[in-house]
Write a structure and sequence with these properties.
3-dehydroshikimate dehydratase; about 600 residues; binds magnesium ion; about 25% strand; elongated; 9-stranded mixed sheet; 2,3-Dihydroxybiphenyl 1,2-Dioxygenase, domain 1; TIM Barrel; carbohydrate metabolism; binds 3,4-dihydroxybenzoic acid; about 30% helix; metal-binding
Length: about 600
């Protein structure tokens, strides 16, 4: 499939945008008019730069408000369009996007509009230009792709076809099956955008909240399946108006975009195969098929001064499994299947942070190769002869993601590289979930990364109220919930009184959190203090037994309940930006204690 991207998706100058698209690996780009207008470079220079970078210039856009007007205005519009066709000749672009009229249309008569499209087509043909007519979702008279298609058919001109944009179709809930009945020769261009489901006027929704396919709530795999069944084999282009992307590093955004298109091709292929109603003519990108991870292999924390962390793990009943054979700064602490690697060597600014997560997978090489084909960055780790080769890539936030296969005893192969590997079975049985703080401009990218690379599923995102702002939180998890990651978007600017923002943590699964809390506190563990008001509120919500409530209060335990069962958990004090949590899920409770998250954030803010 030929991949393309509109320059409007990216921040920076037109040259930076072109470099970013080429470096990511797109085949072509759509030039957004304003990017050229504000550029000091001539159209010829932009054409040469694109050629030099190996990018085709697929589309010039947009030309607005041409059709559905009276003759006097149409004459002016033809002159305006002709100037653009001349410019396109200089750029070497032969396809223009014509947006349906949103402003100046006064003639709601299909015969008139079709005639004007035909006359525009005549003019365009003189310049070797073709016109792709796009029904904008808020077009005054034309806002439905089927209507734009009927007009194009009526115009009956070889140089006039339609542009399909998934946003304009899916945001209006237009039926998508009719796409299959379009003549592929008349589909001149295809733009893709996803978006979160919102109750907002469609123009604002489109101009600010579009995201890459897979990052929103639209069924783009379904859209693609309908499109491909027509036989369309032209470029598929990303056109994302997004306030965050406009501020983020264009090189990263371009990679995020290409990843979305590669992943979408896999999904479209699966959809076509499952529906068995034709496959189209396009060769879709393939990826190594991998099962989702079956568990956490380890969590790695790094920081130059891990003494407090060691003490905390000890108080929680973890066993010191000793140092790594060839890396003395690396040590392992374990309890049940919870394995924490402390790396005292490589701390960014020395502060403790979650640096790596290991996943249990069946085929580590296939998982790693899938990640690399989705443009994850490979991480090289030094190792000695005879040591397990870990397959490692970097997640968008820099967390190192590694893949390993458990041995017949259910243990990771690298464990023998540590001094003591005696199993330590206590109340903690494994890692329940890991929270990672995401930089604000990379949140959507992170969700898509974990969905596409690891095959995790995104749950609906939540906003958690905290003294420093609203914290956006979204869980990605495996179907059986053996792997759960909570991604949190830190509010800008304000952390706690020390400027810290606590959103990185490791939550351990426990069979009896009350017993564990009692033991750990007796061992001197410093818990996060939960205010009395919380327990009064809890009582009003759940009508708990007084003795039970008293125990929760005494042990700084938090409580929640869902349709399956209930949930008890507590937090430790933070060490730098990291803290630990212990959770007990009873009878299949499936959440994360979301109603308790504001209580935690406020308590951490005060410390
Ligand atoms: O918001 C707009 O004006 C606009 C312009 C061009 C497009 O292709 C589009 O989908 C929207
Ligand atoms: Mg569009």
């Amino acid at each position: 499939m030929r991949t393309s991207i509109a320059t409007v998706c990216l921040s920076g100058t037109l040259e930076e945008k072109l470099h970013a698209c080429a470096e990511a690996g797109f085949d072509g780009v759509e030039i957004f008019e304003l990017d050229l207008v504000v550029s000091p470079h001539s159209p010829e220079r932009i054409r040469d730069l694109a050629r030099h970078l190996g990018l085709t210039l697929d589309l010039y856009q947009p030309i607005r408000d041409l059709e559905g007007v009276d003759e006097a205005l149409f004459a002016q519009n033809l002159r305006r369009a002709e100037a653009k066709f001349r410019l396109m000749n200089r750029l070497g672009i032969d396809l223009a996007l014509i947006c349906s009229n949103v402003a100046t249309a006064t003639v709601n008569d299909d015969a008139v509009v079709a005639d004007q499209l035909r006359r525009l087509g005549d003019l365009a043909a003189r310049y070797g230009v073709r016109l792709a007519y796009e029904a904008l979702a808020w077009g005054k008279y034309v806002n439905d792709f089927e209507h734009s298609y009927r007009l194009v058919q009526a115009a009956d001109h070889a140089s006039v076809g339609v542009a399909l944009d998934s946003f304009h179709i899916l945001s209006r809930d237009w039926p998508v099956e009719p796409i299959e009945r379009l003549d592929p020769e008349k589909i001149f261009f295809v733009q893709l955008a996803d978006a979160p489901r919102m109750q907002l006027d469609v123009l604002s929704w489109s101009r600010h909240y579009r995201v890459f396919p897979g990052e929103g709530g639209f069924d783009l795999a379904g859209f693609m399946a309908h499109l491909l069944r027509t036989g369309y084999d032209g470029p598929v282009s990303l056109e994302i108006f997004n306030d965050t992307f406009r501020q983020a590093d264009p090189f990263r955004t371009a990679i995020d975009g290409l990843r979305s298109l590669i992943w979408l091709q896999e999904q479209a292929r699966e959809r076509l195969a499952s529906e068995q109603r034709g496959e189209g003519n396009v060769r879709l990108a393939t990826l190594p098929a991998v099962d989702e991870p079956s568990g956490f292999n380890f969590a790695e924390l790094k920081g130059t001064e891990p003494t407090r962390l060691r003490q905390m793990l000890d108080q929680l009943g973890f066993a010191d499994s000793g140092r790594h054979r060839s890396k003395p700064a690396v040590e392992l602490w374990s309890q049940g299947d919870a394995r924490v690697i402390i790396n005292a060597q490589r701390g960014a600014e020395g502060r403790l942070q979650v640096a790596g997560i290991g996943f249990d997978v069946v085929e580590p090489l296939a998982s790693c190769s899938r990640a690399l084909q989705l443009h994850a960055t490979s991480v090289q780790r030094t190792q000695q002869l005879g040591e397990e080769v870990l397959q490692v890539v970097s997640a968008p936030d820099g967390t190192e993601i590694s893949f390993a296969r458990l041995d017949d005893q259910g243990r990771p192969p690298w464990m023998v590289e540590f001094e003591h590997t005696v199993p330590n079975d206590g109340l903690i049985t494994g890692i329940d979930h890991i929270n990672l703080a995401q930089p604000w401009q990379h949140f959507d990218e992170a969700v898509l990364f974990f969905e596409s690379v690891l095959g995790l599923r995104a749950q609906p995102s939540l906003d958690i109220t905290a003294p420093m702002g609203l914290v956006r939180s979204q869980v990605v998890s495996s179907e059986d919930r053996a792997v759960r990651l909570a991604l949190n978007l830190a509010p800008l600017g304000r952390g706690d009184h020390h400027g810290r923002f606590h959103e990185q943590h490791i939550a351990f699964a426990c069979t009896d959190v009350r017993a564990l809390a009692r033991q750990a506190v007796a061992n001197g563990l410093k818990q996060l203090r939960i205010p009395d008001n919380y327990y009064d509120d809890l009582q009003s919500r759940f009508d708990l037994d007084e003795a039970f409530l008293g125990e929760l209060r005494a042990l700084n335990l938090l409580y929640d309940r869902d349709e399956h069962g209930d949930f008890l958990h507590f937090y430790t004090e933070a060490i730098d930006d990291v803290f630990l949590e212990v959770v007990e899920r009873r009878s299949g409770y499936d959440g994360y204690g979301a109603p308790n998250a504001p209580v935690r954030l406020a308590a951490q803010y005060r410390v």
